[in-house]
Write a structure and sequence with these properties.
One of its GO terms (molecular function) is polygalacturonase activity. This protein is mainly beta and about 300 residues long. It is about 5% helix and about 60% strand. It contains 1 helix and 21 strands.
Length: about 300
């Protein structure tokens, strides 16, 4: 029996296509093996879809997000090619929000913002074999804006390549947020001339001059693994864990990491604030505080 996809909005060659409660086979007949171009909104949106597959589609120059997945479950994405100008803001390749059991594989993404971004209330996401560049990388966040509750868990990013991006493996949360990000794995990643190959920013702020430090709030980040990573950083700080002083990052694991400067003769360093865990065979290091020496503050 065909599953129902509650709502799809797409722009095909600049024309809007809107389909409400279409069958999955009908949706795939419309959307598979197409090129989706331009328009004035998100290129393709899936809302409240179950057991859905999107594959073999090329996206060009969306003014906003190229693929938006909201309130979906059991969603598979394969073999997308997404291209937008480097300087086009908010043109995320794929954004996932309030969705579960999402798998994204074998895709090339070159957008003006995040390659793939993961929003609040999202769990069990598997991302693999992604080629990304330039602009931003793969981001969990930003999360917790305006004090929103965050519940993000079981995220895997593996076997992917970043070239010329601002960020590689990134987690970013607002100070005013509440809730958690936990059980995250970044594994088998390669970086070429990336500004921030590994970065956690628990003090994310979009205000000129920065935001005031808060002592009684923050999204709890725990059990994050970085394993088997290599490549070059375009800045001196190749590993940057900027965690909150009110809710520290805990359970961080780093193994088999080899990062060096993209500039010959230059050195890179690791910088960790309020972050604890274990690291083995990590260059640059030593950065993390031992698990026994730092504890999260009770909230």
């Amino acid at each position: 029996m065909d599953r129902l996809c509650c709502f799809i909005v797409a722009q095909l060659n600049g024309w809007f296509l809107m389909a409400s409660k279409v069958s999955l086979s009908m949706a795939m007949d419309i959307l598979m093996d197409k090129e989706i171009i331009g328009g004035n909104s998100h290129a393709l949106q899936f809302v409240s879809c179950t057991e859905t597959r999107l594959a073999n589609v090329r996206f060009t120059n969306s003014p906003q997000k190229h693929v938006l997945i909201i309130h979906c479950n059991q969603f598979k994405v394969n073999n997308l090619n997404i291209q937008a100008p480097d300087e086009s803001p908010n043109t995320d390749g794929i954004h996932i929000q309030a969705s579960h059991h999402v798998r994204i594989t074998n895709s090339i993404i070159g957008s003006g913002d995040d390659c793939i971004s993961i929003g609040d209330y999202t769990s069990n996401v598997d991302i693999s074999n992604i080629k990304r560049g330039p602009r931003h990388g793969i981001s969990i966040g930003s999360l917790g804006k305006q004090g929103n509750l965050v519940q993000v868990s079981n995220i895997r990013v593996t076997n992917s390549f970043f070239t010329g991006t601002t960020n590689g493996a990134r987690i970013k949360t607002w100070q005013v947020g509440e809730g958690y990000v936990r059980h995250v794995i970044f594994k088998n990643l390669r970086f070429n001339n990336v500004k921030n190959p590994i970065i956690i920013d628990q003090n994310y702020c979009d205000q000129t001059g920065g935001c005031p430090q808060l002592d009684n709030s923050g999204v709890i980040i725990s059990n994050v693994t970085y394993q088997t990573m290599s490549g070059t950083s375009s800045t001196r700080i190749a590993i940057n864990l900027n965690c909150s002083r009110s809710v520290h990052c805990t359970g961080i694991s780093m193994k088999c990491i080899r990062l060096k400067s993209a500039s010959a003769g230059e050195q890179v360093v690791a910088s960790c604030s309020n972050a604890s865990g274990r690291e083995t065979d990590v260059v640059p290091g030593h950065c993390l505080q031992d698990t026994s020496s730092i504890r999260p503050i009770s909230k």
